[in-house]
Write a structure and sequence with these properties.
Order of helices and strands: HHHEEEEEHEHHHEHHEEH
Strand content: 15-25%
Structural class: alpha+beta
Radius of gyration: 19 Å
Mean pLDDT: 81
């Protein structure tokens, strides 16, 4: 029996989360409902590891509350932050399709609630609903474009513009007060921590941002938006 929209929202607690997710929102209510029926919930404590690089890729995750930090560690033992994910963000998509080992670590930052879709369950759904496969391919193409944009930023934009873009993107996910270290920011924009610190201090003095311990608060969002669109090769 097919449920109407109101019944779906009542009976499937993950329907709303999937509906606002950039990964699934373009699907119709019926498709989202079928995916929501596969979801299970997981709660995590601050610092708890969700998975490590090399672990089996057996599930996709979505953040309902809190933050997940995606990191990698070099052979020398140095850790780098690759991404910081907040409510509405989906990660582990490739695991649903290829099942290959994880390419990075995922760790909870604060109290976290996730929803999870196991690969085996999702594969069974795709066999029944091949049109969902088409949407997944489109979304993976969007991820490739994102990677290309990151490469373009590194080659065409100044550090000032890259940093402004990254802060604006983080603000979209977490609000204008962002919990992030300057070391993490430096990895996200591909620059040294000292260089990032110098630019942040310039913005602090001009009133564009406020800085705290492992925190950046955006005060003048228009200023950062202007900085984000400037293209040059000058090092700031």
């Amino acid at each position: 029996m097919r449920l109407d929209g109101e019944q779906i929202r009542k009976d499937l607690p993950f329907f709303s989360a999937l509906s606002v997710s950039s990964f699934f929102s373009a699907l119709g209510p019926d498709e989202i409902a079928q995916i929501a029926a596969l979801c299970t919930s997981r709660k995590m404590h601050d610092g708890e590891t969700l998975f490590l690089k090399g672990d089996p890729g057996d599930a996709l995750y979505g953040v309902r509350r809190g933050q997940i930090t995606i990191t990698t560690t070099t052979d020398a033992g140095r850790q780098f932050t690759l991404n910081i994910l907040g409510p509405g963000d989906i990660f582990g998509e490739l695991a649903l399709l290829d099942g290959h080992p994880r390419s990075a670590d995922a760790v909870a930052s604060g109290s976290v609630e996730l929803f999870m879709i196991r690969r085996s369950d999702f594969q069974d759904l795709l066999k029944r609903r091949p049109e969902i496969t088409t949407r997944i391919i489109e979304l993976l193409c969007e991820r490739v474009r994102f990677s290309s944009e990151r490469l373009e930023e590194a080659s065409l934009l100044s550090l000032r513009s890259r940093l402004a873009r990254r802060l604006l993107k983080l603000a979209e996910d977490f609000g204008e007060e962002i919990d992030i270290t300057q070391e993490e920011l430096s990895v996200l924009v591909g620059a040294g921590r000292e260089t990032v610190n110098r630019q942040l201090q310039k913005w602090r003095k001009s009133g564009a941002v406020e800085l705290g311990r492992a925190r950046v608060k955006i005060i003048d969002i228009r200023r950062l938006q202007q900085e984000a669109v400037e293209r040059d090769r000058d090092s700031q």
